Amino acid sequence: MSLRRICLAIIFVLLGAAQLVSAENIRVAIVDFTLTEQSRKDAPVPFLDQVNEALRLGFENSPDFELIPDREVRREYEPLIARYRVQDDPLLFSLGRQLRADYVVTGRLSTENPNTFQVAARMLDIRGNRILLPISFEGTRRLGNTLMGNLVVRVASSLRQNFTPGQKSGMTEIAIDLESMSSVPEMQNQADSGRVFSLSAIVYGGASFDSKFSSMSSLAGLDLILDIERTHFSFGIGGVVLGQLTVDGSLFLEAHLYENNQAANWQMYFRAGAGFVYPIDPRWEKGYKVSALVGARYIASNFVFDLGLGIDYYSSQRSAFCLRTGIGVHL
């Protein structure tokens, strides 16, 4: 075992002994630190590998932490990077949720010349849906082992200070909230603790056009939507009044084509549904309809905004296009 490994192991054994052992180990996923574009020539890959190795070794030797194996992190990471294209916060939060991690740790290494370097560590609180204050410092490669040990200790200390078993820490002075730069609302704490569904109630209005766009009717309706957490699906029921012609009710299923999985959540979705048609105008007959719709939805805290474009096909062999927009509450 190298001297660096021995030193890092001793540091974390002593650090762990000085702390009360938590009743719930802190699950940590480490995503490899990367080099900045300007540093790829000056910072050799072996030195970057030493930083990643030091971080993993430190957490492996701490009794307070459960380090998620690197093979599991890579297995979940690969399909996510194919979906998100870039390693940004939405990807890392999705990764943390899939791994059931309390924190995801990553960072960047930069250098202006081959002898000096700067390290910036980023820590994402998955339960609290927030980013902790980053840890950064600079030094020379000659003091690399000492500085890497310092990085490990400071990261571990920050995670401990923010962690409360069973719930997100309330120490807002050392965290940056993703949405409002302030403490995370209590509702969000509960939402991230493992619930299965969230509910949106949306009141909307719009217009319906026949297939030739020769006539138009106003529409107004209400949707109740159950979002299945940690999946890309939701379902619900809806009702709409089409001018003074019909009252329609339907059941529908949505597939989320895109979702950024943050507290301020954007969704792009496709909806398919079927339902009944009850006439208001006596010239119309009872029947049924099938419908398809594509839309965008924005959810922030208890507010939801929705915009959609769809098509309805009726049992009377009539079809119509609809454009709708709405607002509502998210619980």
Question: Any overview of this molecule?
Answer:
Helices cover 25% and strands 46% of the residues. Strands 1, 2, 3, 4, 5, 6, 7 and 10 form an eight-stranded mixed sheet that branches. The chain folds into two domains: 3-191, Rossmann fold, CATH 3.40.50; 197-330, Porin (Beta Barrel), CATH 2.40.160. It has 331 residues and is an alpha+beta fold. The protein contains six helices and 18 strands. It has helices at residues 3-17, 45-60, 70-84, 89-99, 144-162, 186-191; strands at residues 26-30, 34-35, 65-67, 103-113, 116-125, 130-132, 135-140, 163-164, 167-168, 175-177, 197-210, 216-228, 233-242, 246-259, 264-279, 287-300, 303-314, 319-330. Helix 1 (3-17) packs parallel to helix 2 (45-60) and helix 2 crosses helix 5.
Question: What topology emerges from the helices and strands here?
Answer:
Layout: H1 3-17, E1 26-30, E2 34-35, H2 45-60, E3 65-67, H3 70-84, H4 89-99, E4 103-113, E5 116-125, E6 130-132, E7 135-140, H5 144-162, E8 163-164, E9 167-168, E10 175-177, H6 186-191, E11 197-210, E12 216-228, E13 233-242, E14 246-259, E15 264-279, E16 287-300, E17 303-314, E18 319-330
Parallel strand pairs: 1-3, 1-4, 2-4
Antiparallel strand pairs: 4-5, 5-6, 5-7, 6-10, 8-9, 11-12, 11-18, 12-13, 13-14, 14-15, 15-16, 16-17, 17-18
